[in-house]
Design brief:
Four Helix Bundle (Hemerythrin (Met), subunit A); elongated; mainly alpha; Arc Repressor Mutant, subunit A; single chain; 12 helices; two-stranded antiparallel ribbon
Length: 258
């Protein structure tokens, strides 16, 4: 931990981790080391207390920490107990939202972040995407430009748009980049439900998505990045014109999974 004093930096001695944090780390090591899948049960409380040589309160705090992070869930009842889970981008989005709210972050920062990062993912997708991933992108474009555009189903249209961007992110082949973008897109989607998009605009978005997929399928990173940038900048201009107040709305934290 560092804190600035005047022009210098003072490095404080880090505090040792709490016992519950150490136990939580050990439990995660056990989950990974034993290859446990989501839905599998962990040992009962009495066994875990003996295994980790801690008290009940410390163990329960450790389990609660992991539950908040999405690494497990607690099944109630006589045959219940801790069950392995799998954290998702929603958990990361919850952390982002908490930090953004506490630091005064606005919805505008989410929009700008997408413009900065998503072209990188599109370029990597042009290098890495599989046929199956490209086929899923094509199917997303078809849904958005077809039935959803005609029906004007706003909520479904937003969800499909975010689905497309998630597909591009995961096709980049970089897990961390994909998780960060999925989290950012989840934050965006929460506020985007307030945006009214007429069918003609939904079709335009589908056309932009189609151009992005064309570049990815052609294996052209530069074209993919340019197409994504053009698409997101056009959307930003739309928001500036039609929803300037939304852009300046503070981000509000919501606890994921609860």
């Amino acid at each position: 931990m560092e804190r600035a004093i005047g022009q210098g930096v003072v490095t404080a001695t880090p505090k040792p981790p709490k016992a519950a944090v150490l136990v939580a780390q050990q439990i995660v090591d056990e989950i990974v080391g034993n290859g446990l899948d989501p839905g599998e049960m962990l040992p009962r409380e009495k066994e875990m207390i003996a295994q980790y040589a801690v008290g009940r309160a410390t163990l329960r705090e450790a389990l609660r920490l992991l539950e908040l992070e999405g690494a497990l869930s607690i099944r109630p009842g006589p045959h219940g107990g801790p069950m392995v889970g799998r954290p998702t981008a929603r958990h990361l989005a919850s952390t982002f939202a908490l930090v953004l709210q506490l630091t005064g972050g606005k919805f505008r920062s989410i929009v700008e972040c997408r413009i900065l990062i998503e072209p990188v993912a599109a370029a990597e997708a042009a290098r890495q995407a599989t046929r199956e991933e490209i086929a899923l992108m094509r199917e997303s474009v078809r849904r958005l430009g077809g039935d959803l555009a005609q029906s004007g189903a706003r909520v479904d249209g937003v969800a499909e748009t975010m689905n497309f961007h998630d597909l591009v992110a995961w096709a980049s082949g970089n897990t961390l980049l994909a998780l960060v973008l999925s989290a950012v897109n989840h934050l965006y989607q929460r506020s985007a439900l307030l945006i009214q998009s007429p069918p003609v605009r939904t079709k335009r978005v589908a056309h932009h998505h189609d151009e992005i997929v064309d570049a990815i399928e052609a294996g052209d990173p530069e074209a993919a990045a340019k197409s994504m940038t053009k698409h997101l900048q056009a959307h930003s201009r739309f928001l500036e014109k039609e929803y300037p107040q939304l852009l300046d709305t503070p981000v509000r934290w919501e606890l994921s999974g609860f």
